[in-house]
Amino acid sequence: MALNLTTADSALKEDYQPAIREQLNQEIMMLNQIESNSRDVEGRRAVLSIHTGRNNGVGARAEAGTLPTAGNQSYAEERVSLKYNYGRIQITGPVIRAMKSDSGSFVRAIESEVNGVVTDLKRDVNRQIFNDSNGTIAQCASVSSADVTLTTPSATQLRQLEVGSKVDIGAVDSPTDHANGSEITAINTSTGVITLNPAASAGVGATDFVFRHGAKSTVSGATYELTGLQAIVNSSGTLFNVNPTSVPDWVSTVDANGGTNRAATDNLFESVIDEIFLDSGQAPDFIVTTPAVRRNYAAQLKAQKRFTDTTTLKGGFSALTVDAGNVSLPLAVDRDCPSNTAFLLKTDNIMQHQSSDWEFMDEDGSVLSRVSATDAYEAVLFKYHELTTDRRNVHGRIDDLTES
Q1: How far is the C-alpha of 55 from the C-alpha of 190, rounded, in Å?
Q2: What is the pTM (predicted TM-score) of this model?
C-alpha cells in the first residue's frame, strides 16, 4: 500500500504560522476626533461660565423721550462632573510562563492582554460617545426562557451587542430588574433575539432596556457612562446644569421627519446648516453618520453625475465632502452612530474634559499587582473624563434618514 496523507497523518507536523490574524473591528473614528480636543480638569468638576442673554436695555425713542430701562448681560454655570471608565485584566502565573516565548505561543500573555484591554475599553468609550442620556443600548419587547426579543433593533444596536458581553436588563431607573450581569451567549440578527445566561426573569417588556453591566446605578438609576451626542445634540433637556427652559439658546437644531425616512440630500444638509448659522452665527465643520446613510448620499451624487472630493481626518480616516452653501464639511462614518441619523458638529465646541489619560493604576509602583492568595497577577486601566460642549447651538442633528 502506498504511503498517503491518511497513513502518514501521525508523522506529519502542524505548521503554525506567525502572528494572530485580527477578526474584530477595532475602528474608533469618533474617539480619535474628540481626543484631539481635550481639556485637563482638577478638583471636583469643571465649571464653565457661558454667556446666555443680551442687555435688552436698548431701543429707539422720541426726542427727549424716556430712555430704555437698563438691562444686563446674562450668564450661567455649566458644571461638568467626570465619568470613570475601567478595563481590568488578570493573568495566571503558569500562563505567563507558558507564553513567554515564540516557541510556546503566538503572542506574549502580558503584552496581548495589556494591549487588548486598551483597545477594548476604547471601543466601548466610542460607543458611549453616541449615548443618549440613559446609557441604553436597545429596547426590549418580551422574554421567553433565555431569549429576550428586542424592539426592532437597528443595525447599530445589534453591532453593539456582542456574544460574551455582560448586560443588565431593566427599566431606566431600575436597570437590573430582570437581569444583572447576564452573559450574551447568542445573537440572532435576523429576529432581534439575544440569548442570556443566566436567563432574564419573567415580565420583560417595552419599558425595559439592555445596558452594559454595571453602567447605571441600581439605587438612583444614574448613568455612569459618558454623556453622549444624542443627549448633547438635542433640542430639549437640561445638560450640565443648564436648562433650556430658562436659557433658550442652550439647544441644538434637530431636524426629524416623524419616523418617516427621507433621502440624505444636499438640500437637507444645507437647510440644517443654515438653521445652525441663524441660531449661533457659526457653521458646523464635521458630519458623522452611518455607512448606510453615507451610501445613500453618495448614490445621489452618482445619479447626478457629480463627483466629490474626499478629505483625511485625524487617525487616517477618510471622508466624503458635503458642499452646502459656502461651506464644505467632511462626512465621515462610525459604526456606533445611531441608525438613520447624522450629527453636524462644530468640532472646536465638542471636547473632552479629563483628569487622566489612558493610564494603568500604578500608584504603588507597579502596573501588575499580585492577586491575593492566588498564583495570578492583574492590572487595571482607567480614564477619568466626560464628553462636553461649551456651546450647544452650534451643533445639529438630522433624524429619519434613509439607509441604502
Answers
A1: 57
A2: 0.86
